[in-house]
Amino acid sequence: MERPRHRPGHPAPAAGGGEERRDLLFTTSGLFRDLYADQLALLERAVLLALDGGAETIRRDYPALRPALAAALEPLGAAAEGGRESLAVNRVAAHWVADAARRLEAGLDAEQAGSLAALRLFGVAPGAYGAGINRLVERSGSWQQRGELAQAYVARLGHAYGLRHQGEPVQEVFRDNLKQVRRTYLGRSSNLYGLLDNNDSFDYLGGLSLAVEQVSGSTPENFVSWHNDPARVRLEPLQQALLAELRGRFLNPAWIEALMQHDYAGARTMGSEFLEYLWGWQVTNPEIIRDSAWEEVKAVYIDDRYEVGLDAFLEQGANVHVKSNMLAIMLVAIHKDFWQADAATLRQLGEQFARLVVEHGLPGSGHTRPDHPMLQWLLPQLPDELRSALQQRLQAAQVEAAPMPAPSTLSEIQAAQAEPATEPGAGQGEAQP
Hints:
By secondary structure, this protein is of the alpha/beta class.
């Protein structure tokens, strides 16, 4: 289930201490957009009320911005009272002033400059769902640099919502807002599933962290906001929450042995879910998933550290395809320089992967398509006989694209251009005697 994420903009404390209005950026999932449109409108109303808290200060100190401010606050109607808060303690108003002035200088009219500078609520386009990062990282052969994923995130999430907006594309405004983000939060209201149980968490929080890093040049502080117990809401650093879940569950022999009782369903949970999601966090948050995490995963799932028969389990029946994909993910992590594995590890993983593919075929995933760059990188590093056998497998899996026929076209024939019919009465507009 997708959830909206709440994003503070610039959390530095106010000079001299005391309370201040923090600037917040909100992103929403497609599901919450559909179910909670009224709540999204309330969020934008809250942003505008915060801006109104410094309205009189802006009018006094920045008279040239008065028309832009009027346009920004217009949705509030009579609720706009015009506060006199200092911009030193009202960061929403301070950021709005800088943004609106910059847009006016760029040539926008006052209405556009004021309204765009006040946008703080973004999501996917109407009818769309998901940030798209999950699908991209699972198709690791379709991109080379992490910046490509960040661009995709901005393109997908850069649509405005709120009181007067229903998904209009404003990618550049979204990008400008992301440059100001210093902390990110992922809200969790249930213990039903964790950060590594599905791909929603790294799709939204991971994608956001990646986008902020790429557009601002600095990785934000990432937190999980636990409010499953309303009486004890707490914040936990993402790294702490993620690694605790990794070690407490997915590297835990008790959890693994329980999954082994379910044959292919258990194997699929290990490889086609857990490891895919770990890879998603690796791509979006490489400062958290380091070499040690991959070395532990390899020791447990490939080397059977706990001696529970996991190596044999992952090669029985259809489970072998799960293991092939697990090996492929590890090799992709090495190929893309996320994991600085030693030569012995690369040789072990590469030869195991090649052997399983030669014997059982490609598992069919975004990491194992026949033309994947990782495979071309791996081939020269294999022993001659194994390399030749894998090449044959890959060639057999290649499907040549059938030539596309010329597109059919329709053209309208005017009555004056039509040739006379050859049979009596055919195509004529008058009755025959």
